[in-house]
Amino acid sequence: MRTAGDLVAAAGCSLVVFALALHFRLPAWLAEESAGRKGTQADAVVFFLATVAIGLIMFASRQWRKSVRNSAHAEARRALYDPLTGLPNRILLHERLTDALAEGRQRDARVAVLFIDLDRFKWVNDTYGHAAGDVLLTNVAERLRAAVRGEDLLARLGGDEFVVVCQEVSYTGEAETIAERLLMALGHPFFVKDAELAVSASVGISFSDPLARGRKDSADTLLHDADAAMHRAKGQGPGRYTVFDRSMKADRVNRNKFEQRLRDALDNDEFALHYQPIIDVGEERIVGVEALLRWEDPARGTIPPLEFVPQLEDSGLIVPVGEWLLGEACHQVVAWSKAFPDLGRLRVSVNVSPRQLLQAHFGDVVTRVLQRTGAHPEQLCLEITEAALMGDVVAAWAGLRKAKALGVTLAIDDFGTGYSSVSYVRNFALDVLKIDQSFVRALNTSPEDTAIVKAVVDMAHALHLATVAEGVETPEQLEELRGLGCDLAQGYLFSRPQPPETIEELLRGAPRKRPRQAPTARV
Ligand code: C2E
Ligand code: MG
Ligand code: MG
Cβ(468)–Cβ(502) under 8 Å? Predict the structure, then answer.
């Protein structure tokens, strides 16, 4: 539009110059002067074209100057604003916060920093994919923008982290009210990829102290303090805010130390696998084992996975650890199959986290491990949680499809605890459905849970899936499961997860595979 305007202006200028020139008979005069002859109509045309050319040159130069100005402006914007949300980025935030602190010192006014981090954003990204994650972040930015006061600065620090800077906060409660408003703004669901997502956030608040003598608050200190407070809030559950106090500094240091400890644990071979037998309910014999990760910390002893697998996932360390344990589990099952051939082909189940599945080459990792260890694909079962199959199924499924094509078995773990839809179970070529232990625990006591287990077993069988009951602890539960037609079971009733040497003892004494009986002739 503005370009068209410039063009009209340039043409207008040319016409004015042309009209004036005609008025003063300039072309004829020029022609007479230069050639000593009278001006003709052709001179007028030539002069007209010359003025148009001058106009066009004026227009082009104006456009060029404008584009140089625009690109310099765009460059400056790119450097200071987040391209996804259009909010000020880390650099501009730092600048503005430093200015706000200087101003606060002059006027004895406190500055509050609110550090906002979405809860479970990594889960959204892992399950729905990065494009959906981006849409969510844009929507979150819009809601936050609407919730802050006009004079506050809202910036995106990166990832799912946002910061609000409030100048002249007279009392602590004022910043807390803003935190509450921000949390409320995220309180109703977001719609991403046709899914309704309930997203909450954790907020940490820090304040400057303009009256502190001998210590000047810096933008970095305030951001670090608010970050530490945010982590404390997150530890208390989703959707909370906390105001910074000195004790929180230690939290951050501990978290970084813990991640470093996990890296060292990987380097020092401190991770180990324990195995839990999986039993055929009908024949009551071991048909496989589930590999469960343990951390043998020299200082603290054996640490269960729920205490460190989330950190392995957050830090991405689950990828190398996962590849290591896949190889270890395959290697172990091959060794046991060779040592106990009369047990039939044992199968090892390995838990795979969504982060591993979203690796571009997960299928190749499985292929490589099978080749290296000599395990038959049928000896490996990959256990995936419902969350991994919910969202960015295309990406998660690419690696699984490759493994499945090799003949690897796929199981859905903890069925019934996530957001599973029956259509996922139907649409993906799953082989095994593991019924979560919360349902199994309630067998014999809750008719409703018994009804759920029965419905799940029937559905799985109708879809040609085998069923495994998790967490079987009593003979009564086993009996009930047998009555409901459940195929396999695992739980403390048979054995707790044990180191390989103990499992080996169990396998040595385990009931052998019954020889196939010849069909009895009907009479
Ligand atoms: P999961 O895959 O569902 O594993 C079964 C969990 O139930 C194991 O806990 C096991 O010890 C426990 N369990 C088995 N039988 C019984 C029982 O009869 N009663 C009770 N109360 N519990 C029983 P564990 O080993 O602490 O593992 C917890 C979770 O950690 C696993 O749940 C899995 O989601 C995750 N995990 C374990 N190893 C790995 C791994 O190698 N990779 C990944 N990504 N996750 C893992
Ligand atoms: Mg499992
Ligand atoms: Mg499970």
Answer: no
Q: Which residues pair with 93 in a beta bridge?
A: none
Atom of ligand 1 nearest to the CA of 313: 44
**Assessment of whether the complete model's pTM goes beyond 0.70:** no
> Using CA atoms, how far apart are residues 79 and 91, in angstroms rounded to an integer?
8
- Structure tokens of 459? 């559905």
Torsion of CA 52, 58, 64, 70, to 10 degrees: -120
Residues 281-332 have pLDDT tens digits of 999 999 999 999 999 999 889 999 999 998 898 788 999 999 999 999 999 9
- With a 6 A CB cut-off, is 293 part of the ligand 1 pocket? yes
Place 521 in a pLDDT band, splitting at 50, 70 and 90: very low
Report how far apart, in Å, the C-alpha atoms of 161 and of each of 119, 204, 227, 313, 433 are.
10, 11, 10, 18, 37
Q: Which of 434, 453, 445, 356 is nearest to 400 (CA)?
A: 356
Mutate to test the pocket of ligand 1, among 309, 433, 498 (most ligand atoms within 8 A of CB): 309
N- to C-terminal Cα distance for the chain?
94
State the Cα–Cα distance between residues 430 and 258, nearest whole angstrom.
36
Structure tokens that stand for 318 in this block: 């689950």
CA 343, CA 510: separation in Å to the nearest integer?
8
- H or E element: which one contains 518? none
pLDDT in tens, 337-375: 999 999 888 999 999 988 888 777 899 999 999 999 999
Tokens of 221: 């200190």
Tell me if 412 sits within 8 A of 349, measured CB to CB.
no
- Which CA distances in Å does 9 have to 13, 37, 175, 342, 475? 6, 35, 53, 94, 92
**CATH 3.30.70.100 at 90-244, yes or no:** no
Q: Which CATH number is 258-508 given? A: 3.20.20.450
CA 356 from centroid of its chain's CA atoms: 12
* 258-508 has the same fold as 90-244: no
Beta pairing, strands 112-118 & 347-352: unpaired
Mapped onto helix, strand or coil, the DSSP state of residue 484 is: helix
Tell me, rounded to whole angstroms, the distance of Cα 406 from its chain centroid.
28
Q: b/e string for 126-141 if b means 16 or more Cβ within 10 A?
A: bbbbeebbebbbebbb
Q: Output the CA 385–ligand 2 centroid distance in Å.
A: 8
Distance CA 276, CA 288 (A): 8
Does ligand 1 come within 6 angstroms of the Cβ of 499? no
Ligand nearest the Cα atom of residue 321: 1
Q: Where do the domains of the chain lie?
A: 2-79, 90-244, 258-508
d(CA 23, CA 5): 27
10 Å Cβ neighbour count for 319? 18
Residue 308 CA to ligand 1 center (angstroms) comes to: 13
Distances in Å between the Cα of 340 and the Cα atoms of 287, 314, 345 are 12, 39, 9
Q: Which residues surround ligand 3, an ion (CB under 5 A)?
A: 413-414, 470
Residue 188, both tokens: 């109703």
Q: How far, in Å, are 25, 40, 49 from residue 32 at the CA level?
A: 11, 10, 19
